[in-house]
Amino acid sequence: MNKMKPFSAAALALTLAACDMAPKYVRPALPVPGGSPQGPAYPAGQGPAIVPADTAWKDFFVDPRLARVIETSLANNRDLRVALANVEQARAQYRVRRADIFPTVNASGSATYQDTPFSQVGTGRMDIYSASVGVSAWEIDLFGRVRNLSRAAQEQYFASVENRNAAQTALVAEVANAWLAMAADQERLRIARDLEKAFGQTLDLTKARFAKGIASELEVRQAQTSHDRARSDIAEATTLVAQDQNALNLLTGMTVAAEDLPAAMPDGDVTLSNLPADLPSTALLRRPDIMAAEHQLLAANANIGAARAAFFPNISLTAAFGTLSLGLSNLFKSGSDTWSVVPSASLPIFDFGRNRGNLRYARATYDAMVATYEKSVQAGFREVADALARRGTMTEQMEAQTSLRDAARVSYRLSEARFRAGVDPFLTTLDAQRTLYNAEQSLLATRLARAANMVELYRAMGGGLK
Length: 466
Description:
With 466 residues, the chain is of the alpha+beta class. The chain is 60% helix and 11% strand.
C-alpha cells in the first residue's frame, strides 16, 4: 500500500491547488432607501422596541389560546411538511454533488479458470486469482468545475432551508389572522343578535301603534327592513364562523379544540405592541424569503464557474493497487503485488457552441437571480412600509370609530325614547338604528385591522421563525 501514498499526496495537492473559475461574488446594492419611509402616515419611534426577527412567536402572541393553535399548526400543517421534505431533498442532492469531489474507492476481486490444450506447465488448466483496491475515472478538479457544482447544490440546499423558514413565518401569520377573523365574526354575530333583538322590539311597538292607527304602514315596513337586515346578518355571520373554524382546522392539520377557539374579539391585545416604528433597510436581509433569494443568486454564480471550467481540459485518473497469483493460496504472498495508474485528459475542440451556450445560459440565469433578489428586497420593503403606514394612523382611527359608536348609541337611545313618547317621527329612529349598526360594524372592522396589522408587521420584519 505504500506505493499509493505518493499518488494520493500528489492528487490531494493538485485538488487543493485547483483554481476557481467562478466570479467573485458581491452582494447587489439594496434597491430601496436606507431607512424607513417618512411622512404623516408613519409613526415616530417611542421608547424601546422589540426586534421582530429576534422575538419568538410564543413571546409575541400573548393570548394563550392563539399560541396553542399556532403551536398545533407548526406540528401538523401539511404545507410545512412539504417544505421540510423539500429541504431533505435538497440536502440529499448536495451530498451527491459533494461526493463527486472525492475519489470513489472500489474493491474488486476475480477468479479466472482456464483450460487449454497446450501448456508449458504440464497441464492445460490455469487458475488466476486477483484482488485490488482503486479508483475509477476520478476527475481531478483543477479548474473547479466539480467544486462549483457542489457549491451550487449547497446554496440550493440553503435556499430550501430558508424557503421552509419563510413558509413557517407565513403560516404563523396566516393562523393568527384566521383566528382573529373568527374572533371578529363571533363578535359580528353577537352584535347582529343584540341589534336584531332591539330592532324586533321596535318592530313590535310599531305594529302595535299601527293597529291603533297611530303609525302608518310605511313606518311598519321601515322597521321591518332594519329587523330583516339584522336577521340576514345573523345567518351570514353564522356561516362565516363555521368557515373560519374550517380554515383553522385546515391550517392546523386537525380539529382545533373548542377551548382554543375565540368566542369574541378580545378586549386587550393578543400580541405585543412595542414593534419598531422605523427600521434600517438592511434589517430586511434577515427575512427568510430574501435570504433564500440570495442563496439562489450564489448558486447561479457558482454555476458560471462550472460553465467556465468546461472550456478547459478535463483530467481524470483511474488507478488500482492489488495482488495477482495463479493460486488462491498465493494471492496475498510477497511478490504478488500489482498496480496501475491511468491518467487521461480531454480538451474540447469542436463542440459546435455547446459550452459557449451553457456559459451564456449560466450568466443569464445569474442576471435573472439578481433581478429576483432585488425584487424580493423591494417587495419586503413595501410590505414593511405598508404595515407601518397602517399602524401610524390606526390609533387615531380607533379613537374616532369608538367615539362614533358611542355617539351613535346615545343617539339611538334618545331617538327611540322620543319616538315612544310621540315627539319624533319613526324616520328619525330608523336613521339612528342604521347609524348605530354601521358604527358597530365599522369599529369591529377597525379593531380587527389593528390586530391584523400587528401580525403583518411582525411577519414583514422577519418574525415568526423562532
